[in-house]
């Protein structure tokens, strides 16, 4: 064997015939491979400390001061801090999941991903895993810094349930990101406008800085459709147990069911959409035509 | 080892691909038929917009054909997508793939994971290929800081990560300097020679590259294959006569003496002989009906007392073949060449008067 022959195969037909195990292991390795640049990239760009911690912290601070000026219950400061931390995940879903395939196409990566033998869902999972690891660190820093600076007191009885809700929220959020990524596969420059459309309105209807129940019917609709809204609502109920006023609705148990349904439904929908849209993109030539 | 028997490496039948580009429908491929046996280094030669890249996109499963069929080692590009992706790879010129924040080593390892190499095998394979492409000193350098040539070497290493049976090279030396282009060509040749049956499909509009590397070439224009053959066969298509350039110490009676000989189509002084102005020798361009007529010329010169100082046969180039087939040169891609930029003559000596 030489450097020019790494894995000897008798014929192209033999090389093309993979076992089930080979297929699964390739997909799993592809998840790790795609997550790698995100996790390592985070450690190589210290500028993120400024852009993704200081700026969200300042945005959170504005609401904190407003609530303090209005002499709102201290739990409201906690709501804002928790919402501020979760902001990072929504931004990650919009910019690093949904529109990521557009960037990948522009760079020429997309056609290499599709030309490789792994399932494309593995790439989306890799993007999600990398995004979750990277964003969790950022969100944790925002949460800790804001909690210390503004003296937020959390009252948590069920740590396990809180972590479960957090995990399910991320699963549902990134599942939604996979759906959006599939859609962006056939969209072009409209992706930028879509991103703008997805940020501020979703912040508002998700109740990022206030309990979403205050929005009435709109809040209920948000809880039924947007993972950020339902996840935040459940986490607030679990993180401020002793609150003298209702923190959220419906119950945490119901919201867990909603999150589980969203997680599974979004990932399955993304898989179906990806297959359909990949075929459409191959038909229209959109996998390789850049800047469109 | 021998070339594995089996279906052709590439088998294309009646392939057609049209794009809806408003307000018109652009036909990129218009009924292409092509068969490439396993183990061949095959070239697609044509100007920009000829349909080369469209054909590669279809063969690499990135684009669906509008009509017709295409198979890679017997696998259909529409139905057997995954199987094809397991045995092929592709490298394009000017490729900017990957992530600038990663090092060369990390970037290649990331791609190795997409082909199912284990973590350890991936790193080992990457290190071997980095050495093979001569990027040892740059292995820990960030991708964003690489020069064009270095980046293309890295791309080539990426293309070999999975030991493909068929490698698609789309203008792989585009934008490279002479040394880097030569290095890439040597790598391709060495890789292909290592295992019988490995097949390469190269698209290029560098004539010399196609001539140097390819066993057979298809000349493509406006979505159609105009001619297929080995470089020698293609050149023969445009060389209907034998053309020689001969330098003599003197020639009594002038070129007309030779022009009257049997088998000689024409004999004319070379327009630009070069050399010192006081040189006494005579340089002629001889056009013969066939190579065999040269014997009669040599005998006649001997009788005339002329000594042959130099004799060279002029060969047509692939560009001459292209001009003959298409009616324009590569530089004139938008239509027939205007008179002021008429196609080059059919031989590589530009000053030979073929009329």
Entry keywords:
heterodimer; A: 292 residues; mainly alpha; 12 helices; elongated; B: 355 residues; alpha/beta; six-stranded mixed sheet; four-stranded antiparallel sheet; 11 helices; 14 strands; disordered C terminus
SSE succession of chain A: HHHHHHHHHHHH
Q: What is the 3D form of chain A?
A: elongated
Distance between the termini of chain A: 44 Å
| Class based on secondary structure composition and strand pairing of chain A | mainly alpha
| Outline of chain B | elongated
Parts with pLDDT < 50 across at least 5 consecutive residues of chain A = none
Helix content of chain B: 25-40%
Please, how many domains of chain A? 1
Strands ordered across the widest β-sheet of chain B: 6-7-8-3-9-10
Any idea what the radius of gyration of chain A is?
21 Å
Low-confidence stretches of chain B: 333-355
Number of alpha- plus pi-helical segments of chain B: 11
Compute the average pLDDT of chain B.
Answer: 84
Strands of chain B, count: 14
Which whole number gives the mean pLDDT of chain A?
Answer: 86
Radius of gyration of chain B: 25 Å
Provide a descriptive summary of the structure in words.
The complex is a heterodimer of chains A (292) and B (355). Chain A is mainly α. Chain A has one domain (26-284). Chain A has helices at residues 12-16, 20-44, 48-69, 75-98, 100-107, 109-115, 120-150, 159-186, 190-205, 217-225, 227-239, 252-284. Chain A starts with 11 loop residues before the first helix and ends in an 8-residue tail after the last helix. Chain B is of the alpha/beta class and 355 residues long. Chain B has eleven helices and 14 strands. In chain B, the strands form three sheets. Chain B has a six-stranded mixed β-sheet, sandwiched between helices. A four-stranded antiparallel β-sheet of chain B has the order 2-1-4-5, covered by helices on one side. A four-stranded antiparallel β-sheet of chain B has the order 12-13-11-14. In chain B, strand 4 and strand 5 (75-76) form a beta hairpin. In chain B, helix 4 packs across helix 5 and helix 5 packs parallel to helix 6 (178-194). The relative contact order of chain B is 0.12. The interface between A and B is large, with 48 and 63 residues.
